[in-house]
Design goal:
- The protein is an alpha+beta fold.
- Helix content is 24%, strand content 26%.
- It has one domain.
- The protein is built from six helices and twelve strands.
- Strands 6-7-8-9-10-11-12 form a seven-stranded antiparallel β-sheet. A five-stranded antiparallel β-sheet has the order 4-3-2-1-5.
Length: 262
């Protein structure tokens, strides 16, 4: 009888690491009365998270993540990178967006003149990692090279990728000094392409196996261990103890605190 009990463990693990977190995220999303119903009603102004370039002469690199708009926010976040060179008077925002791609517009957007730290259509962003000074200067040069090397510059798919998180994960792989730890809610970060199954983790360390972004496993010092089922990633971070859950994100030692402390 005791041996028979083991057959239920896969179901319990699937429920605890996948179904329950997504269910809780759904409840939190639908009971949040502050979310705008239409995109044109949503805030996109600055949140004040980016250092003022007028009073910050040093170079700055920040990676942001914010919940996707409407029902997509239950499952995932949108991520982007903001850079400011030394003595620069403005930021440049590096990101991938799907609007217009089907009509021939590029997916990669390199833009100035917009808030580097703006609300993502009403969702408050989080700083995932930040670097300043000489290291940031070096990172900016390498990030711009990595942007030009992104292999899906004219492609966009919400699920399983390539999307905004696929792009930022690409930058993390090409520039491991960015020390990027994308949350499990960054759906698309595990998309390596249709013909590529093995690669580095988005942090630039460790390795991951991914079958088109639908199934896979990731093992890396920064992210820990993650298992991807249909784009939903769940796992455990052992070095900075935390659970990594779909819908809910990273629960444990603060990701933002660790990133800003580097």
């Amino acid at each position: 009888m005791r041996l028979d009990r083991w057959r239920y463990w896969p179901l319990l693990l699937f429920f605890g690491f996948y179904l329950l977190p997504v269910g809780l995220a759904s409840l939190g999303h639908w009971f949040d009365g502050e979310r705008p119903r239409h995109w044109w009603q949503a805030r996109t102004d600055s949140t004040g998270l980016a250092p003022d370039p007028v009073t910050t002469p040093e170079a700055v690199v920040q990676v942001y993540g914010a919940r996707a708009f409407r029902w997509r926010g239950i499952f995932g976040v949108h991520t982007w990178v903001a850079i400011k060179p030394r003595d620069g008077d403005s930021y440049t925002r590096l990101e991938v967006m799907g609007w217009g791609v089907s009509r021939g517009a590029p997916a990669v957007r390199v833009r100035q003149g917009i808030a580097p730290d703006g609300y993502w259509f009403g969702a408050l962003p989080e700083v995932l990692t930040e670097h300043r000074g000489e290291l940031a200067e070096q990172l900016i040069e390498r990030l711009l090279v990595a942007v030009a090397q992104y292999p899906h510059a004219s492609e966009y798919r919400v699920w399983p990728g390539p999307n905004s998180n696929t792009f930022v994960a690409h930058l993390g792989r090409r520039v491991p000094e960015l020390a990027l730890d994308l949350p499990p809610t960054a759906i698309g970060k595990d998309y390596l392409g249709q013909s590529r199954w093995l690669g580095r983790a988005p942090s630039g360390g460790g390795m991951q196996l991914s079958l088109g972004g639908y199934l896979g496993v990731l093992v890396a010092p920064e992210e820990g261990v993650e298992i991807n089922l249909l784009g939903l990633a769940a796992g455990v971070d052992f070095f900075n103890p935390a659970l990594r859950l779909p819908g809910l994100g990273r629960i444990g030692v603060g990701t933002g605190e660790r990133a800003l402390a580097r």
